[in-house]
Amino acid sequence: MSSSVAELYRRLRAVIRRVPRGRVATYGQIAELAGIPGGARVAAASLKTSTPADRLPWQRIVGKVGPRRARIAIHDPVGAALQRQRLEAEGVALDDAGRIDLDRYGWLPTATAGSRRAGSPRRRPRSGSTHRA
DNA sequence: CAGGTGACTCTTT
DNA sequence: GAAAGAGCCACCT
Fold first, then answer.
1. Does the CB of A67 sit below 7 A from strand C?
2. Pseudo-torsion of CA A80, A119, A37, A71, nearest 10°?
3. Secondary element (H or E) of residue A7
4. Which of A13, A54, A4, A55 is nearest to A31 (CA)?
5. CA of A88, C1' of C3: distance in angstroms
6. Does A132 contact strand C, using a CB cutoff of 7 Å?
7. Do A35 and A3 contact (CB within 8 A), yes or no?
8. Which of A12, A75, A94, A125 has the greatest count of CB atoms below 10 A from its CB?
9. Would you say the C-beta of A46 is within 7 Å of strand B?
10. A8 beta carbon to strand B: under 7 Å
11. Which residues of A22-58 are buried (b: 16+ CB within 10 A; e: fewer)?
């Protein structure tokens, strides 16, 4: 199997398109699902070089900052603001620091036929502790 | 072929 | 919890 670059990018786009509305995925997650373990930066590069014509839900791909948190990773402040706006428009909440709770909005890739759906946002499994809105 | 870059991520201070 | 370092992969000069 020749893992040509075009092939890798094609896989990345395919994975990105699978992220459902109202959910987010991390670069590393996308890269791994596309067959590029540790290739988070590659996933980011594919998004940066992509164009609106690719019709990718780019706003749903975010940077992981903690084990259960993520945040917008776009450097350009204008683009970052647009991403935040588009995420909030589809129901993803961001706090003042721009952080996203992966326990609630993180995408759980369904390997096979869709068994679970994204009907209602998951409630945080963690009992009330730190909230720091 | 060598070196620099980046919409990343993890570990250590 | 913020900041700094190092590791990572593919791309571009």
1. no
2. 30
3. helix A5-18
4. A13
5. 29
6. yes
7. yes
8. A12
9. no
10. no
11. bbbbbbbbbbbbbebeebbebbbebbeebeeeeebbb
Please report the pLDDT score of residue A131 as a whole number: 47
State, as a whole number of angstroms, the distance between the CA of A65 and the C1' of C1.
12
β-sheet with A25-26: strand ranges across: A25-26, A61-64, A69-71, A99-101
Q: What is the pLDDT of residues A56-77, one digit of tens each?
A: 999 999 999 999 999 999 999 9
Indicate if the alpha-carbon torsion angle A79, A74, A41, A87 is positive or negative: negative
Q: Indicate yes or no: strand C within 7 A of the C-beta of A37.
A: yes
- Report yes or no: A62 and A72 within 8 Å, Cβ to Cβ: yes
CA–C1' nearest nucleotide, residue A49 = B7
